[in-house]
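Q: Could you write out the predicted structure for this multi-component system? I'm mainly interested in how the pieces pack against one another.
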Amino acid sequence: MEEHTLAHGAYWTVKEFFTYPNEYIYWTIHIVIYPYLTGLVAGAFVLSSMYHVFGKDELRPVAKFSLVFSLALLIMAPSPLLFHLTQPQRSINIMMTPHFYSAISAFTFVYLSYMAIVVFEIWFVFRPYIVKQAQERDGIVGLMYKVMTLGSYDVSEAALHLDHKIIKILATAGIPAAGLLHGYVGFIFGSVKTVPLWKTPLMPFIFLMSAVISGVAVCIVTYIAGMAFKKHFICFVPIKSMSKVLAYFLVIAFLLEGIDIVFHAYTAEEFWHIMSELLFKRFAFKMIVVQWILGMILPFILLVLPNLTMLRSFIAASLVLMGVFTMRWDVVIGGQSMSRSFAGFLEFNLPVFSKNIEIFKEGLIPALFLLAAPFFLLYIFNKVLPVFKDIFTEQECAEAEDKMSKRLF
Amino acid sequence: MKMSHAWRPVIVILGAVIFLLILRTIYVPADFTAKNGDYKYQWHRTGNEKYWQDYPAKHMGQEFCGTCHADKVEKISASGHQKVECESCHALPEKAAKKHPVDLKEDFKYLLEIGVDSTRELCKRCHAKLPYRPAEYAGAKGTVKFKMIDPKTHNAGIECVTCHDVHSAGFK
Amino acid sequence: MVTRRDFIKAGLLTVAGMTIPISALEIFKPEALASLVESFSKKKRWAFVVDTTKCVGCGMCAKACKLENEIPFEAEVQRTWVERYIQTKDGEVIIDSPRGARYGFTSNDPYGKELKDEEVAKEFFVPKLCNQCEKPSCVQVCPAGATYKMEDGVVLVDRSWCIGCGYCVTNCPYFARFFNPVTNTADKCTFCYHRITKGKQTACIDACAFGVRKIGYLHDPNSEVFKIVSTQRVAVLKPEYGNEPHVFYIGLDHIVK
């Protein structure tokens, strides 16, 4: 018989001072990645809705891209949970026997409703293309497109006009749904009453704002990289517009995160002595330097300094991505690092490689795989539904720039 | 009239919902209910209650051991150790425990590994002098003084059972 | 451009659309809502009393529990454990629970640091176990219905249904929950449900030679637990979380976490 003497969590947790005997860091790297990915989904979707709903015409070249990218991210978003569960083969139970007093059980409904909105918005957006491909191609690829038409080949003027209206409605409905999806992830953390760092009603909004900034940032980075890879002419106008959005939301995100800490410091409840040691000593580098200075303040300065360039946008967006990932880490791991006894600390050491599958699956290698997977999915989706084709010519680019410069926002 | 293409996604969604609901009726055990209508705290597979009710008990105590070792139980119940259950010293966590001469598992459905833990460490769990250990405790015949020793000075290195008889809680 | 009207319409539609699958699962049954108002506290209910003034820290309870409930002995998880609280004369509070106290406390050296008798202002032991809360936050958050509260107040885990998300573990203020290394599912103290329902005491009570622990029906006038809780001054751990724990402590101190 195999000996089961290693408690779940004991391998990667180092305890200091008094912690409860059963206390370990149970939510590890995958619970860091999960809100990170859902955040990217929400941000990317909001970006595409800015074109469809709020009439930001200069975003046309990135609208399709960000929409399809958000689907790629959305498909991968719950997969970290499968790696995290100790009984992943039973994950269907969460859909089959939910009870709605549990925040997590609402996941299925929030996730699937949002998935439906995104999938069918993509369907309506790409319908003319799908129908054309279904008619022109044959073989397996043709069959795939034929299935994707859902049996309708109606691309008449009237039909396309209807599509356009529906896209607007879906893009509008998608904004609260995206907000719900990610705000809800924030709620899962915010409602854990035993963890003082999480337990704040601001949590959904903090998560939402950091979601928007990370989503816009990932679109900037991927779009520039994707276009450069395809050797297309890159019009700077949509990137400039995205950079503006990024800068605005950076301010809100920073204020929300700041007020949370200020509030904890001011009210100084019984856990403040341990929380302050966490913030200003143990997590000081990750939180203050990486998350706030490198991840928010520096990119903000880079973005608002005059004469923004593509390289500066790219660097700022990359910094924001790193900053938001660190923020997720600090929230998830940091929250559990303070013992619930308020008298000790737990330290998390990310497992890199282990022969024990239980440990390996919560380690670095699956984490890297999960972070890379959405980009791989985007690459495949791009083969089926090309997203980098709808680009501005140099003339259109100049027109868009002219139009944008006349607007305040 | 021809159906507009815009309805097709709706049909797909409805199909998915119906599929999930059908899957649910097949997958979820029939005894999965919210007892007393309490979804918050009592939403579960009621069949599982039996699992916990029927979980095998392992600590049987003096009553069970006394069926064979009546003399020992009689001796210990007259001593200061009257409230110490047999398993405290005789149930061993290690699998390499000293075997009981009679196969308890087979013949008596007794599931613990039985041997003798006669180490100093075991006795120290109660009798090592700690300043905050209560000085006396309530026995069956009124309060009993709690005997504590300093393990560093009290015959260090010798097993307690060399001089002490555990069952009578006195000297040999 | 979408008008405000379109925006509101679409928003309402989304919300309505999300409600349909929910109502299909019948959570809006009237009795489900009624259960929120009317708790079952008037019924017969198990409760536990721990007299910390009597505990000597031998840890026999922790050992017995591990063997009784087949939690691998050397795994660093405990259904019940004992904590030691030391306040030194210069005001420092030291708390420890080496190996969950399953090998007991045999010397006065928390974290390997020897303490002299004269340095100690006060010191005591506090045994802990699942509080079998009236409003268990661990049960409330289970997304799959894999943990539940019995009508007699004991909270149990369905080992064949638990998905192992750890949400319950994180939501227990007392950290009474953990992952069982053998079943790989959430695990917790059951008040030895298989014993108390057959008229036996729990394994930890049997193993305790000092009468620290007691179990009984809270609303049975003949039970010792009822007598203690209704006539003596008892406290519970962390009442601020609103879980209404049902393990009552005699001699609790403000330094107890």
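A: Regarding packing and overall arrangement: The beta strands of chain B are 32-34, 43-45, 136-139, 142-145, 164-165, 170-171.
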